[in-house]
Each structure stands twice: as structure tokens, then as C-alpha cells.
Amino acid sequence: MTERLSYDIARQAAEATLEIARAEGLKVCVTVVDSSGAVKVLLKDDGAAPIGVETSRRKAYTAAVMHLPTAEFAEFGKDSHLIDSQLLAIPGGHPIVTDTDEVIGGIGVGGALAATDDRLAADGLKSIAALLA
């Protein structure tokens, strides 16, 4: 069975997201995970805060396993640690969804303000939209 989220697609999403952040003068971390939440790609920009590594990973994980953006999960997931200690109820993570509505992974951004992380993750997904068809 071929894995739905290839390394190449994961890498392209992470690199595009990092480039968008750099164009705005932001230093962030970007993580892309598969549908089970396992890391496919993790990029930490020069000068990005170390905490961004873990927050980007947990945001990507949450988006993938919960099948929704972490901003939405944050609305009801305030006690998420009771469910799964890896879940993070902070905006900045988005599921990676095919054109047939299959969740094949997640992308998470950490290192900027939550709303900025969220926008960057969404913009990074736009860069691979054609590859998800």
C-alpha cells in the first residue's frame, strides 16, 4: 500500500510555509505529520525559538488525529490533556485533506503569534493543493 502523504508532498508543504514566513520576516518551525501523527518533515528556521519545534509538532499531530484545525479544536479542547497529552489546543495546525475529504496528515506552525501560525499553516496548504487531487 502506498502512503497517501509522500515525503515529497510533506517537504514541499513545509518548505513553502517556511518561505512564506521568511518573506514576512518571521522565524518559525514547521512540522508535517502523516495521518497517524508521525513526523514526516520538521523544519526549524535559523533563529526560531526552540519551543516552536514542539508546538509545531503537536499542532500538526492534533490537526491530523482530530481531523480539524487546531483553532477549532481549541474551542472545545481545553481539557485535551485528559484525552491525549500530545494534543495542543492552540491555533496553528491544519489537517491535510485530499479532494475526496480524506485526512492524510497535518501541518503545524510554531514560533509566531497563534493567529499568525494559523494563517501560515493555511497558506502552506494552499501551495500543495494541486498535489492533493
With strands numbered from the N-terminus, the spatial order across the biggest sheet is 2-1-4-3
How much is the average pLDDT?
A: 92
Number of distinct helices = 4
Give the class from helix and strand content and strand pairing: alpha+beta
Strand residue content: 15-25%
**Gyration radius over CA:** 13 Å
The main pleated sheet reads as: 4 strands, antiparallel
Query: How far is the N terminus from the C terminus?
Result: 18 Å
The percent range for helix content is: 25-40%
Shape descriptor reads: globular
For this structure, the quaternary state is single chain
Regions with little confidence, pLDDT below 50 for 5+ residues: none
What is the N-to-C order of secondary-structure elements (H for helix, E for strand)? HEEHHEEH
Q: How many β-strands, per DSSP? A: 4
Protein topology:
Blueprint: H1 7-23, E1 29-34, E2 39-44, H2 51-66, H3 70-76, E3 93-97, E4 103-110, H4 114-126
Antiparallel strand pairs: 1-2, 1-4, 3-4
Provide an overview of this structure.
The chain has 133 residues and is α+β, with helices and mostly antiparallel strands. Helix content is 40%, strand content 19%. It is built from four helices and four strands. It has helices spanning 7-23, 51-66, 70-76, 114-126, and strands at residues 29-34, 39-44, 93-97, 103-110. It has a four-stranded antiparallel sheet, with helices on both faces. A hairpin with a 5-residue loop joins strand 3 (93-97) and strand 4 (103-110). Helix 1 (7-23) packs across helix 4. The longest helix is centred in the N-terminal third of the chain and has 17 residues, at 7-23. The two termini are 18 Å apart.
